[in-house]
Amino acid sequence: xxxxxxxxxxxxxxxxxxxxxxxxxxxxxxxxxxxxxxxxxxxxxxxxxxxxxxxxxxxxxxxxxxxxxxxxxxxxxxxxxxxxxxxxxxxxxxxxxxxxxxxxxxxxxxxxxxxxxxxxxxxxxxxxxxxxxxxxxxxxxxxxxxxxxxxx
Length: 152
Prior knowledge:
- By secondary structure, the protein is mainly beta.
- It has one domain (28-135): Jelly Rolls.
- The protein is built from 1 helix and 13 strands.
- The strands form 3 sheets. The protein has a 6-stranded antiparallel β-sheet with strand order 1-2-3-10-5-8. It has a 4-stranded antiparallel β-sheet with strand order 4-11-12-13, with no helix packed on it.
- Strand 11 and strand 12 form a beta hairpin.
- It is globular and about 45 Å long.
């Protein structure tokens, strides 16, 4: 595959979470580096997280591994065991099935940029959000009692 022209890739943004969980995550952007070269076993995103925003709600996956490497700025990694600051060159990862809910939060005054890598287990993976009444799987987002969140 040819060299990826990162600047030519579409800048994506948005959040699929239902209200009220989406607002803190709106504003992040990413470019799908893995898609640009046809990767199918894992995804690679170049992500930008503005000040005051979160990468996601704190979560863990049943079937997908995740890995991040900070390239610019700093983020606060929030996990089951507490918090840690990740600066340029720092990285973290989470094995599928381990109940270590995690997210990145930008509490600094400047954008943070990081590389995000994750397996692609579409149709197999479920996700748990331990701080809130939400889980997800192939059927979409729902409350812990199974009641679906409204779509859109």
